[in-house]
Every structure is written in C-alpha cells, then in structure tokens.
Amino acid sequence: MAKNQEKSLDINDEYQQRLAKLARLKKQAIDPYPARSKKDTSVADFLNNFKKLLSSQQKITSAGRIVSLRLQGGSCFLNFEDYSGRVQVFIRKENIGEGEYQSFKDNVDTGDFVEFSGQAFETKTKEPTILVDGFKFLAKTLLPLPDQYYGLKDPDLRFRKRYLDLILNPKVKETFKLRSEVIKLTRQYFDKNGFMEVDTPVLQSVAGGATAQPFVTHHNALDIDMYLRVAPELYLKRLIVGGYDKVYEIARCFRNEGIDHQHNPEFTQIEAYWAYKDYTFLMDWMEKYFEFLVTSVNNGSTKIKNSADVIDFKAPYPRLDFKDTLEKALKIDLDKTNDQELAKIAKNAKLEVDKSWGRGKLLDELYKKFVRSKLIQPTFIVNHPLEVSPLAKKIVDRPNYVERFQLVVKTAEICNAFSELNDPLDQEKRFDEQRKLREAGDQEAQGADSDFVEALKHGMPPTVGLGVGIDRLVMLLGDIENIKEVILFPTMRPKNDD
C-alpha cells in the first residue's frame, strides 16, 4: 500500500474516532460548540501577572487550543495556546470530580478549544501552571493537526492551508504582525501630513492607471464587461480635479500576470496624490517616510539585515538618471541606437523579446536586466522614458523623458512616483498611442479613459503621485524572499484531489 494511502486511512480512522467522541459529548448533554465563553484572562496576562496571581490565589478563566496532552491515571498535564502565548494546565480528578474528569479524559483531543477555570500553580520545576477546578469544551475538532514536532514544512500546503501554517509555525504570525504594523505606520505618516484616506472603485469600466493586463468580468444587470482595477490612479486624480489637495488609498489591485517570487495577481499598494508638489520634492519626503518606517519597526535603527546584505535607509539616497545609467551599463548612446538594435541587444542578453515590444518596453526590460538587478542599497532611478510613462509629465528640456522616479532596494522596485501629466490634450494623445500598442498585441498597454481626459479638461493643478507596494515592502523588512509568505491567502492553482 502506498504511503499516501496509508496516511489517508490513518486520518480517516482518527476522524471516525473524533466523530464518536462528538456523539458521546452530545449524548451527555454537553454542547461541543457553545456560543459563549467566560474567558477573562489571556495567556500573556496570566504569565505576566503570575507572581501576583500565585500569592493572591485569584480565580481566573482562560481558554485556547490544546497543543499537547499528557493523560495519566487520575491527573493530566496539557498545554494550550491563544494568540498571546502558550501555558501549562494541570487537572486532577479530586479537583473537578471523578465524572467530570472521566468525561474530559474520554473525549478530549489535541486541537480542541477548551475553557479552563482555576488558580495559579507552580510545579516542582517552577513552571507557571493553571491548576484547574472547572473546564468547558468550546469547539471539538474533528481533524488532527499535523505533527507538532515535524511541523508543516511543505510550502504548497502551507500556503493552501494558512490556518495550519499559523498554528504550527509561530514565525508566520510575526510576519503578519509586521505587515499590520507597516500599514498602521504608513497610515500614521500620511495622516499626520494632512492626507485624507479615500476609497475608489475596484470594478472599473476602463482598466487604466498602470501598464498591466487586467482581469475581465461581466456585470449581468448592465450587460457590460468590467475590469478589476490594476491601479486606483485615475480615480484618485479625479479627486484632485474635484478640489482635494492630498488623498491616499491603501488599495487592493489585480493584474493578470505571471506568478513568481515577487508577483501575485492580487496585491496591496498605497497610492497617494499631492497637489502643488513635484517629483523632486517627493523624493525628499519619501526618504523621511522610509526612515520613519524602518526605525519604527527596527528598534530605532535605519539598518536592516536582508539575507547576506545590510541595507541602510538613512537618507539621502543616490539618484541615478535612467538614460545615463543604462547607457553606461550597455556602453551605447541611446539617442543613436534604433529599436532594431535595442531588440538585438535584448536578444543577446537572453531576454524573450516579443514582436509587440516597442522602444519603451525594450528600454524597460534592458534596464531591469542590466541596472536594477545590480542595485542593493536604496537608490532612486529618475527620469524614465516617455514611452513607459503615459501618465507622467515630460521634462521640459528632454521631451522624450518624464519627471519620474522609482526607489529600488535589493533589486526590487519598492516605490514608483512622478509629476502627474495634467495637460488633457497631451494625455489624450498618449492614450491614443497606448490604444495603438494594445491593438498591435501589447496586452499590458493602458486603457484609454476618455472620462478621465474630460475630467482633466476641467483643470488639475500641478500634482505629484506615488505608489508603494506593501507586499514587497514587508518582504524587504522581514527578510523574506517569496511574496506568498507575506500574503495570508496567496493565489494558488486549484488542486485536483481526484
């Protein structure tokens, strides 16, 4: 018999045993899934106040999931845990009564949620313990947890069954605690600087605001195709047109792209727009943001350990011109290099060049290959090609380039920002160019949003906008290599159990 078949039989056998215990509890008129608990003390509170509770012998009630169980004749030791920690429990037959003890012994399993009432007790080995005088089943579990000793190691299983991952791998909880803290601190920084948090549509009639292939859905009542947003940008800028000066959104976005260690089709970013400011101002301001964020989560230090590197977020950060840096890396003059020559360079560099790639796409992929992949310390790449920046303002004396920057750290783009294009006729022309690229086969070209152009025709002041990827930021700060580790429920291929 194959090992996986044996395992399946073992699990099924235990499932049947647990169903029998469930039936027995019900037969004893015990509700295995009550609606209420009298828990008044967390594990952390019990442990932090143990000396005081021990001397006062104050009665407390705590509860959680049983993670280990050592049943003996007339007594048992067990450990349970809640979100705040793990604690030992000691149950004696004479303390709770023979019938109650027998019921507990006959029906309990690891994984069960149980409420325990009692007093602080110190064992001979000085371990803080709850000496129980009463208990209550809160949730009878029907499936066993994976072995505590071996843990849950298979990444695919961990991501599919995150609830088991959280139970068995304590460091995972710390990752998502860090993620929560990053979002709280980000809100704090933007709120303190006078920004207003807003919500914009996730369902959009035009997929605009970023160079990405969208997900398509259909609205039955209106009988129209709609798109999950690739970015909230065009709606946030409508709010600037409407009279707000500072707005931001922590936005869930969706891009119908490949999945790898840095990309998940569903991701989170903060986008913000600030009227009457430009990209040079914003670079200084974002340096302060990253210093604030990193020191807040890193005990006051601007330096973090990431794999073999020590990354320092102390400002200022180097500012490298896109064109100059790429020319230096490729040893060419971009102004004298045509698209066919760029495509040849890309092919020689083992890039999979698609016939739909225009000059902008070629430059961007070469930049990623020869420049971005070498950057470890926080570095601003500034002044990107016009072709890859259809929503950014042109540099006055360099019309083929725009007022844009990206912050790159450990080879990954962490922040993207630019002085926003507010010339409606120029924006209309660039949307037409994006439409032509899409018709030529570029599925990532931006949608042409005529309603947004109409909004711009009502006037938008000089504005700077930015986007920061929350997932990648948490990866960086938590020294994590796979984006699936920082998304609670990452996108996975459905598993065929047949």
UniProtKB/TrEMBL annotation:
Q: List the GO molecular function terms.
A: ATP binding; lysine-tRNA ligase activity; magnesium ion binding; tRNA binding
Q: Which cofactor does it need?
A: Mg(2+)
Entry EC no(s)? 6.1.1.6
Q: What class of enzyme is it?
A: ligase
Instruction: Locate the residues binding Mg(2+) 1.
Output: 413
- Keyword flag Cytoplasm: yes
Query: Which processes are annotated in GO (biological process)?
Result: lysyl-tRNA aminoacylation
Q: Which reaction does it catalyse?
A: tRNA(Lys) + L-lysine + ATP = L-lysyl-tRNA(Lys) + AMP + diphosphate
Q: Which UniProt keywords apply?
A: Aminoacyl-tRNA synthetase, ATP-binding, Cytoplasm, Ligase, Magnesium, Metal-binding, Nucleotide-binding, Protein biosynthesis
Provide the cofactor note recorded for this chain's UniProt entry: Binds 3 Mg(2+) ions per subunit.
Q: List where in the cell it is found.
A: Cytoplasm
Record InterPro entries? Aa-tRNA-synt_II (IPR004364), aa-tRNA-synth_II (IPR006195), aa-tRNA-synth_II/BPL/LPL (IPR045864), Lys-tRNA-ligase_II (IPR002313), Lys-tRNA-ligase_II_N (IPR044136), Lys-tRNA-synth_II_C (IPR018149), NA-bd_OB-fold (IPR012340), NA-bd_OB_tRNA (IPR004365)
Q: Which residues cross the membrane?
A: none
Task: Please name the HAMAP family in this protein's record.
Answer: Lys_tRNA_synth_class2 (MF_00252)
Assembly notes: Homodimer.
What's the protein here called? Lysine--tRNA ligase
Q: Which organism is it from?
A: Candidatus Komeilibacteria bacterium RIFOXYC1_FULL_37_11
> Gene symbol?
lysS
